[in-house]
Amino acid sequence: MTGQSVLKTMTNFYSAYLRNYAAKWVLVDNLRPFLVSILRLINFTLDEDEWDAIRFGAKDFDLSDDHWYDYTFEGTERIDFQFATHRETEAVYIVTDCSALLGIKISAFETLFQHYRAKQGLSSMEVLVSDAFAEASLPGSDNIVTFRPSEYDFERSDAFDFFNGREWLSLAEEHLVMPIYDAGIQWLTPDAQKYFFPAYIISAIRQTRSETLETALSAISEPSRQLTVLQASIIEFVISDLKRQER
After folding, report:
1. CA dist 142 to 33, 183, 191, 225, Å?
2. Average pLDDT in the 95-124 region?
3. What is the residue extent of each domain of the chain?
4. Which of 139, 157, 167, 245 is buried most, with the most CB atoms less than 10 Å from its CB?
């Protein structure tokens, strides 16, 4: 083998290695909702012909052979996709070429659609919700409501009694309906709002009620809305799917 042939072989090997390393995956059944969610970011609507091309194209290209199906979408931004199916795990591996900011958002949706199971519905997202909001710490008694409750401040007093000393997951387990207006999240400090907000996501999922989550989201203060890309993606997807179910 000539030196040029060796160089070409090594170049192809490392190119395949880097592509496989960079590839993310979603379950085959989640490929369409994943694409719909991503393309919404660039104001592009996936039509049936495009979906047929991708789902059959990805199926025909096997990850183990390092064969990839290429497809490009161009809306407000351009995204170049490569797809390959890993048949043993029923996953589609995906490589994207796009702007850095869009890439961060795509990674968040990839994580989301690794957890989502269509047959279980949004309940399959509860573990991801817990993981995504795990960094928030349980606030102390002096950091629950915006100021110390008194007998003349019934809303904050009720909120203090409801949330004080409780972990958000235990509240979600014990209360199907989280308080929205009386003793609701709007009376809490920014730290408490961040900590208890995932209980409202779980409550909305279990009630199949988007209003619960939308009302809680609109009630929290600006500092509490400093969400990670993954947290924001979860909220957006849950609200969208709940509205679809409510129609």
Report:
1. 43, 17, 11, 21
2. 93
3. 3-115, 130-246
4. 139
